[in-house]
């Protein structure tokens, strides 16, 4: 019974991770400008990768491997937003244009 529950949990986390990774990839391809693409990549990417890491940790069945996978998830969730912020700030500082239908630029300073 326990093996069946573990297989179900592994399958669900793997499917959820694949869904988030796919959503992030579609967002990177379909969104109109650098800033919104970066938003899709920095939100859905780490969640999808994190869930896939957790599913691998669950599948292993060993606590040490699951702990490493959980540490990887924490690392992804802490570093991805910081990296996206720094990339967006660098793009804004080099005058990378917003999408033409953007409502406002919060970093404009006006």
TrEMBL record:
Pfam family, one: PhaG_MnhG_YufB
Transmembrane residue ranges: 6-29, 65-88
Annotated signal sequence range: none
InterPro entries noted in UniProt: PhaG_MnhG_YufB (IPR005133)
Source taxon at top rank: Bacteria
Keyword Transmembrane: yes
Keywords per UniProt: Membrane, Transmembrane, Transmembrane helix
Any GO MF annotation of the entry: sodium:proton antiporter activity
PANTHER family, alphabetized: ANTIPORTER SUBUNIT MNHG2-RELATED
NCBIfam families named in the record: CPA3_mnhG_phaG (TIGR01300), PRK12674.1-2 (NF009314)
Record protein name field: Multicomponent Na+:H+ antiporter subunit G
Organism: Rhizobium sullae
The organism's taxonomic lineage, starting at the top: Bacteria, Pseudomonadati, Pseudomonadota, Alphaproteobacteria, Hyphomicrobiales
């Amino acid at each position: 019974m326990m093996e069946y529950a573990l297989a179900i949990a592994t399958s669900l986390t793997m499917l959820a991770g694949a869904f988030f990774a796919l959503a992030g990839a579609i967002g990177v391809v379909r969104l109109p400008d650098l800033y919104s693409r970066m938003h899709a990549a920095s939100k859905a990417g780490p969640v999808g990768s994190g869930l896939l890491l957790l599913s691998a940790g669950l599948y292993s069945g060993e606590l040490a491997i699951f702990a490493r996978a959980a540490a990887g998830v924490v690392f992804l969730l802490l570093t991805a937003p910081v990296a996206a912020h720094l990339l967006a700030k660098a793009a804004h500082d080099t005058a990378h244009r917003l999408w033409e239908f953007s409502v406002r630029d919060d970093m404009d300073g006006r």
